[in-house]
Amino acid sequence: MFCPKCRQEYRSGFFECADCRVPLVDRLSEPEERETDDDDLGALIQTSLESPVAITLVESLLQEAGIPFFVVNQNVTSRQEGGNFLGWWSVRVPRRREAEAREMLASVEKMR
């Protein structure tokens, strides 16, 4: 017997998980495979955004769309060391979501 929630195994005679308080099952389903594409933040998008308000808006849009992202060069020193003297905002997203992210960024850039 197994708990479908925490996947703990129980001896026969038990009917409910002591921790999760859910009914036990005879066998567990296969765990869902995690999308490894989202782990690959290989697409670098450099924008002309400088405004903290615009950057916050883009971050919110990416989060709402469920697009994982990583902001590059968040502080002035790292931007200068990377050769980004104008202070533009750059972000990394998964390659498979790049087009969608670029579309969002472009819509915010047009609002300026």
Describe the structure.
Strands 1-3-2 form a three-stranded antiparallel beta sheet, with helices on one face. Helix 1 packs antiparallel against helix 3. The protein has three helices and three strands; from the N terminus they run βαβαβα. It is rod-shaped and about 65 Å long. The model has no long low-confidence stretch (mean pLDDT 78). By secondary structure, it is an alpha+beta fold. 29% of the residues lie in helices and 10% in strands. The longest helix has 13 residues.
Which range best describes the helical content: under 10%, 10-25%, 25-40%, 40-55%, 55-70% or over 70%? 25-40%
- Any idea of the CATH class of the largest domain? Alpha Beta
State the strand order across the main sheet. 1-3-2
Principal-axes geometry comes out as rod-shaped
Query: Quick one: biggest sheet?
Result: 3 strands, antiparallel
Q: What do the pLDDT scores average to? A: 78
- Report low-confidence residues grouped into runs of 5 or more: none
Q: How would you describe the oligomerization state of the chains in this entry?
A: single chain
Offer a quick outline of the entry.
The chain has helices at residues 52-64, 76-81, 98-110; strands at 43-46, 70-72, 90-93. It has 112 residues and is of the alpha+beta class.
